[in-house]
Amino acid sequence: MKKNEKIFAIFTVILVALVTILPILILELSMKDQKLWQRDKILGWKHIPNKTAYQCNEGFCHRFTMNSDGFADDEFSVDKHNEKRIFLFGDSMIEGFYTDTSNSTHRLLEKKLQEINPNIQVYNFGVSDYGTAQYYLTLKKYGPIYKPDIVIFALMIENDIKDVNPALMISDDGRPYIEFTNDKANIIHTNYTEDNPIITLMKKSKFLSYILQSIERFQKWQLELSSTPDNIPLPFYIYQKDHDEFNKSFLINEKIILLAKNLCKNMNSELIIITIAPSHIDETIWAKMLERYPNMKKMEWDLEYPTHRIKDFCEREDLNCLHLLHPFMEYINKTGKVLYSRNHYHWNENGNRLAAEEIYKYLTTNDFI
After folding, report:
1. Domain boundaries, the chain
2. CA angle 286, 290, 293 (to 5 degrees)
3. 108-142: b or e for each residue (b if 16 or more CB lie within 10 Å)?
4. Residue 62, helix vs strand vs coil
């Protein structure tokens, strides 16, 4: 090879390397750190304690700092004096990563309650993808430490009912389950499949970690579709009254809630169950779902069935319960305002504010405050 050809070949290799590697390097340096999670032997996963990271969506990046227990809130205090403490449990709706921290439900609720009593504190125990079993196990772990006066389980109907039943889970994500044998509760801790060394190395990169997360979400969505004969996402079948596995899930949830009720009784605290209205109560979003999954048009769906079933359970067991379905529907019909993001179907600022107002109204009207 002539000297000029060697120089040209070297130049070509360098150019190709720059074209392929430089954009990735620029993205890596410019991306916000979104690594918020670590595995947990008891709860399955949790936020990284004291971690500061960013969640970016719809053109905005919100900065969050976890406390030393790994929750998206200020530091919790062990010492309790005259304050009244409210523990708020939930999944990503309550966690609040899809809005600015000041506009999350727990912040707005605390602000309104402190207008009545400045010593009221709302502790945010919301964690993405948690279900009822994880709410109970988290309460069992942290309740004796921080001594709540009121405990709120905010159940996201489409997810939380399903997530207690291994038969309805499409993959082993390390989630703990509670099995009941002769009414005795047994906690089952499943194991994560360890990442291979290449995946572990990739997760150290902000850019590649983001790509992996996107792939995992897509794969989960594909599995949900393929797990049903009609290519309809599995969570929607909660709106079918005759689905055997979802009926089992309701019963498991009821037993876990009763465990939580007894635990709260032992801690001299009150348990309140809230059912969160799904985004599909917005007719625009529901129409979008019907277009996206055409087979849904061939079936009948009762979006109020889960709420009615949980309401009957609450009345039967004398539980304190607040159902957000009708207040949210009435708000949408009356004002025409949007309560959910059209992209990720979580509460927007209006949705968080309305949720906080309804919880505030329930607490004050029923003399909890």
Report:
1. 31-365
2. 130
3. bbbebbeeeeeebbbbbbbbbbbbbbbbbbbbeeb
4. strand
**Structure tokens of 201?**
């190395």
Q: Which helix (H) or strand (E) holds 188?
A: strand 184-189
Q: Is 178 left (phi over 0), alpha (psi -120 to 50) or beta?
A: beta
pTM, rounded to two decimals: 0.84
Phi, psi dihedrals of residue 205, rounded to the nearest 5°: -95, 135
Tokens of 122: 């709302």
For the stretch 59-68, pLDDT in tens is 667 788 899 9
Pinpoint the alpha helices (H) of the chain. 3-30, 92-95, 105-114, 132-146, 157-160, 197-202, 206-226, 244-266, 283-292, 305-316, 325-335, 349-365
- CATH, domain range 31-365: 3.40.50.1110
Structural tokens at position 135: 């709410």
Read off φ and ψ for residue 61, nearest 5 degrees.
-115, 125
d(CA 278, CA 346): 9
71-95 per-position pLDDT tens digit: 999 999 999 988 999 999 999 999 9
CA Rg value for the chain: 23
Classified as helix, coil or strand, 269 is coil
Are 162 and 228 in contact by the 8 Å Cβ rule? The answer is no
Residue 64 three-state SS: strand
Beta bridge partners of 340: 347
